[in-house]
């Protein structure tokens, strides 16, 4: 899928956090896409990934205990649309080639494909899949 044909953009977990925290690692080109007219989405799978990384202490952000509530409120305030895991996302994920084995990224790729949206990510592991990605 070409970036010009997407109906919106999904934030990869790092892009979601960098956007919310105003982190300088979010490239200005990604910021321009976030600020464009197309809808911006986040996946509940990103919250699973955040929880897993927090529990493994593999996180470079200090989050307060009610991070889930605070992040959700801020995303709602910014008009970022939530994508929940749908049953149809699971067979879409199952059918993906194993270019990339990260289960969270694979779910995001499946959600992108199912919804015909692109992904905002710096991760080159998305490149072999039929999704538009930008950074």
SSE topology sketch:
Layout lengths: L8 E3 L1 H9 L6 H7 L5 E4 H12 L11 H12 L2 E3 L5 H6 L8 H13 L2 E3 L12 E2 L1
Describe the structure.
The longest helix is centred in the last third of the chain and has 13 residues, at 103-115. The two termini are 15 Å apart. Helices cover 44% and strands 11% of the residues. It contains six helices and five strands; from the N terminus they run E-H-H-E-H-H-E-H-H-E-E. By secondary structure, the chain is an alpha/beta fold. A five-stranded parallel beta sheet has the order 3-2-1-4-5, with helices on both faces. The chain has helices at 13-21, 28-34, 44-55, 67-78, 89-94, 103-115, and strands at residues 9-11, 40-43, 81-83, 118-120, 133-134. The chain is globular. The model has no long low-confidence stretch (mean pLDDT 91).
Number of helices: 6
Helix content: 40-55%
> What letter string, H or E per element, gives the SSE order?
EHHEHHEHHEE
Topology, number of strands:
5
**Largest beta sheet: strand ordering:** 3-2-1-4-5
What is the SS-derived class?
A: alpha/beta
Distance between the termini: 15 Å
Calculate the mean pLDDT score and round it: 91
- Contiguous runs where pLDDT drops below 50 for at least 5 residues: none
Large-scale geometry: globular
Largest sheet: 5 strands, parallel
Name the beta content range: 5-15%
Question: If you compute it from the alpha carbons, what radius of gyration comes out, rounded to the nearest whole angstrom?
Answer: 14 Å
């Amino acid at each position: 899928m070409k970036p010009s044909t997407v109906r919106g953009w999904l934030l990869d977990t790092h892009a979601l956090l960098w956007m919310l925290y105003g982190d300088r690692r979010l490239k200005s080109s990604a910021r321009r896409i976030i600020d464009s007219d197309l809808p911006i989405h986040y996946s509940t799978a990103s919250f699973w990934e955040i929880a897993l990384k927090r529990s493994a202490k593999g996180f470079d952000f200090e989050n307060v205990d009610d991070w889930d509530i605070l992040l959700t409120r801020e995303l709602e305030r910014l008009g970022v649309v939530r994508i929940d895991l749908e049953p149809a996302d699971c067979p879409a994920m199952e059918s993906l080639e194993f270019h990339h084995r990260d289960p969270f990224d694979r779910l995001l790729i499946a959600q992108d494909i199912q919804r015909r949206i692109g992904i905002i990510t710096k991760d080159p592991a998305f490149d072999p899949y039929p999704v538009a990605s930008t950074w």
